[in-house]
## 1
Amino acid sequence: MIHPTAIVDARARLGEGVVIGAFSVIGPHVTLDAGVEIGHHVVLEGWLEVGARASIGHGSVVGGVPQDLKFTPDTRSGVRIGGGTVVREHVTIHRATTPDGWTEIGRDCLLMSGSHVAHDCRLGDEVIVINYAGITGHCEVGDRATIGGLSGLHPFTRVGEHAYVGGCAKVVADVPPYLLVDGSPATARGVNVIGLRRAGMPPDDRRALQDAYRILYRSGLAPRTAAERIREELGDRAAVRRLAEFVLGARRGICGPPRESSSNNRPTGRSIVARTESAAQPVADGTESAADGTESAADGAESGADGAESGADGAQPERMA
């Protein structure tokens, strides 16, 4: 159903059952697969492909010109949005800057109201971007990661799979997979145990990731050396191997551990863990988040860290089925 006030270019490709709301504008190079729902006052432009059953909320602008001074208007580039993804009200997603390039959003993602995804970004499947988060150009976000509200990512930053970025965080370095980061600048606070439990990761794998976290952030080793040690000691588990490989592939460094302030005993950020051995600094045990606590091996239940793991249990949104 297309509202009579909507403007739909005759060259746009619309699948069966597409719904387009009042005063929306659909450009000539837009493809909407079956069952896509477009709200009111939505603008879809550029080369845009929207997968089946996705929805785009009122007032959103998708496929707009990127905010890059080097971009030329005649560049043929676009946005791809996977099937089942929900884009809520007043979200902006800009098209890529390079010829035949794509800004890509995976399937079954949730982009909450007011969030922004800039040019040339790649979001995996089932990613959640909470209200007013800003993902700047060329960022990569792994599957099932969560970007907290009002947070900002530096250009070219990577966020690993199943990672959780806390609200209002300032992310200036790569966020390793499976970890929880928070603060300005963002620092690692522990393993995202709550998110991993919700995703169905077995307790043994979660405990192995916590062991890897301690090697990475408490051993005093430089990140690359720590990653090599993690592969040697814990590399029999796929999740741990992916964590180590992510650290080894970091070009901007990774988010560092929190560090106690000498003046008020409150944690302060160390934004980037150095990539050289000489810059490595040991971190006092007392700075560790309670989220790093080991899980009980007796019955598979989490230890007392369950209640203290970032306090995010109530803050993290439930994922879509």
Note: The chain has two domains: 7-195, 202-300.
## 2
Amino acid sequence: MSLGMKLSISRCPKSRALIPVRWALCLLIASLGLFPAACLHLEPSSFDTSQDPAVLLGSVLISLSGTGSGPNLITGSGPCCAILNSAANLLYIVNSGSNTVTFYNATTVSYANGTLAASSFTTGSNPPGAAVNPTANLLYVVNSGSNTVTFFNATTGAYANGTLAASSFATFNSPIGVAVNPAANLLYVVTYGSNRVTFYNATTGAPVNGTVAASSFTTGSSPTAVVLNAAANVIYVVNSFSNTVTFFNATTGAYTNGTLGASSFTTGSNPWYVELNSAANLLYVPNASGTTVTFFNATTGAYVNGTLGASSFATGTYPYKMAVNSASNLIYVTNYNSSTVTFLNATTGAYMNGTLANSSFATGAQPIGIAVNPTANLLYVPNNAASTLSVFNATTGASAF
């Protein structure tokens, strides 16, 4: 029985054994018009999300997907990455614990195909990241446990070559970050376990120089993310153990300043992500152990305020990933251990509301990924430990639903 309703999510008792039954019973009775709507105020993180989107009550299977909208939508297990496809009005959430990628309507934040199950597509093992190519209508998901990158149809979720195996291409060990260059028809994959960035044909999946080895270029130690600057023809790779970000030519893979050392710039401690603001010519690196985000000149690698310290701004605990909203001149940083997202001025690093506390907004447990939709004024934050999706107003930080 499909309920076809929106859920307003807040708190309920913490008994994991009782909540799934209470939840199902409340929904069943409310759907018949016999119980107050207040019964629907439930918190997804307070129960075992492996029972979603459906729970079994006696012999009745109740589908909880419905319209699927709310401030903490249920995702697959261990969501770790959010990618927006504005051209198709789709949001993709990569679920590392369930080996799936889920498609949502980016405006209503409802499941693209009506239910979580129908809107989720199987990836390789332990996917940590994704990128979308609207030009080729392809979605790329890297699979750290399978050492592959998988190509999907970005609209339907179908495998690009018919099957998972045929649509997955070998990488070096532990692929973790991915970016696409539609104009050059190139795909970049960084491999955490191999200290490499590999260049692939973005439509066929073939390594550009014939083999994975010949198409790979040495990074710093344990690279975790890559981003493209199409206008400057540069890709940036952040190296979590080297505490550096490296600049490469986006077409050839050559170091922009001739050598790895000369093309690498010091970050804070344990950088995990990198993001570009092309409009302001700024590069941002959140430093997980350093509890800061550092601003660089995107062309030269120079610190925007002269020194690392002066160009780094305090975040919540363990900043993991971030997003840029050029239209609102804001950046957003997810703080994994604080379970918050922080809003900062994108050019000055000032807190949006004056202080770190006032500019940080509560998410679900252990947020990792993040994406912003300037057109809809929405900010999406997947919560890894809660297996939920938080949605905020992208300019105020208020709950969007």
Note: The longest strand covers residues 79-85.
## 3
Amino acid sequence: MLLFPWILAIIWTFWTKSFLFCCLLLFGTLWQLKEVINIRLPFQINIVLTSLLLSWVASAYYTATPIIALGMLLQLAAVAYLIKLYQKEKANHAAIIANFNQQTQLLNELRKQRHDLHLHTNALFHADAVDNQIKSYRSHVHAQYKEIDQLHKESNIVAAALYSHFEQAKQKGITLTYHIQHALSDLPIPIEELISLIGNLLENAIDAAFTYQSESGEKGEISFICRKQSGIWIIHCKNNTIPLEHDTIERMFTKRAKSTKGGNHEGFGTQQMMRIVRSSQGTLDFSTIQNSFSVKIKIPDIRQNVRSGG
């Protein structure tokens, strides 16, 4: 359908001996043909675009001005640009949906784990504590659910984020240990920024520990601690790492941050972490000693101070 106005324009410009315009329109026709093959637009949009193209042809014909037909090229370029934007947004939307589905699955799994833990707890509560089989059963349950138990005070979203990174580390053979004395969900940070902060911190730690594990042959370990002390939230993440270059360390958590993943990547994750911490009037410090990398974040519990003052 979209090719019909182009064919009309080529025939008319050729008939009027406007060969230059005819060649340009032929180029536009080939471009349009490529777009038609690669992209399936809804029927209604095809009708609108075809009508607009025909209006360019009609204007050129009734005014006997072949150059007006070149407006079809402008329309084609504009539509192609809009289609590229649409495809990009569609891809982003698909990624968001996929991430949402993954988080939903993790939430369901976490709820199942919590439910099973409750059943195991009831069984142990009514069992004979002296029985050796019960002792073995208790040890098995403790080993299986000790990390899940750390998350029972967290909101579903935060618990899912922590659990997903725990599973990610587990799949890579890395030991990720949570020591959460006070729930991360209570931090005075918007939930979307809290998830971003946790995600970037743990993803960097898992990547570094996995690289260390692959190159050294020793098991990678990560320790994640959250506590509140004297009105200050403290998040401390420590992981194994290979020795980092001095230039990488100097630029870390700055606008000039360089990704440790190789290539030409920039350290957007660390920049995002620093932005969130500063917007919360907090501080972020890091240190690296031999094969150990440590990040300590301190954020004042401003909401608590405001409520206390009121």
Note: The chain is about 65% helix and 15% strand.
